[in-house]
Amino acid sequence: MKIKNIVLACIASVMGIAYAVAAIDNSAEEVAWVVGDQPIWKSDIEEAYQSMLYEKAPINGDPYCVIPEQLAIEKLYLHQADLDTIEVSEGMIMQQVEQTINNYVAQLGSQDKVEVEYILYGKSNVESVKAAYNDIYRLVRVLL
User: Fold this and answer.
1) Where are the beta strands (DSSP E) in the chain?
2) First to last CA, the chain
3) Burial of 67 (0-12, 13-18, 19+ CB in 10 A)
4) Distance CA 11, CA 33 (A)
5) pTM value?
6) Contact in structure between 80 and 38 (CB atoms under 8 Å)
7) For 28, which DSSP code?
8) Cα distance between residue 101 and residue 117, in whole Å
9) Would you give the DSSP letter of residue 27?
10) Residue 66, Cα to own-chain centre: how many angstroms?
């Protein structure tokens, strides 16, 4: 009877330990670093480390210091690119193009005269002129 109790106690303790280990392995993802508002997950670091081992890439220093630094630099560049992104309103560009064409019409007297004038510059109609000005104004907006 004592042996049976000892065996049951051992099985219960092994089951308890197995349950505890499974609970630890199934824990939520941990954040190692944060760059801007983007987290660097511990699993990302481990994945990069395993990839470097598989590719036999040299790792200078402690991989758990070097790899997070590399990931942080990548995320920093991406975060800065998001901050530097300039969005140009299509409506604003079209309004400037229309205003430019209307100014030419006012100066020359009619849209036909504007078309004749632009034929001299290699543009076949007002739509091709508008397309050219659209590109110009978009570039100017981005550069300013």
Assistant:
1) 31-35, 38-41
2) 88
3) buried
4) 40
5) 0.47
6) no
7) P
8) 12
9) P
10) 22
Task: Say how many CA atoms lie within 13 Å of 122 toward its Cβ.
Answer: 1
Distances (CA, A) of 72 to 34, 78, 101: 8, 10, 49
114 by Cβ neighbours in 10 Å (0-12 / 13-18 / 19+) ranks as buried
Residue with tokens 């995320």: 75
Torsion of CA 34, 39, 41, 46, to 10 degrees: -70
CB 79 within 8 A of CB 39: no
Q: In Å, how far from its chain's centre is CA 110?
A: 47
Q: How far is CA 68 from the centre of its chain?
A: 18
The phi and psi torsions of 120 (rounded to 5 degrees) equal -65, -25
Mean pLDDT by 10 residues, the chain (144 residues): 57 55 60 85 89 87 91 86 75 85 86 76 71 76 63
> Could you tell me the two tokens for 54?
């598989």
Q: Give the Cα separation of 24 and 30 in Å (integer).
A: 12
Contact 137, 96 (CB under 8 A): yes
Answer yes or no: are the C-beta atoms of 100 and 133 closer than 8 Å. Answer: yes
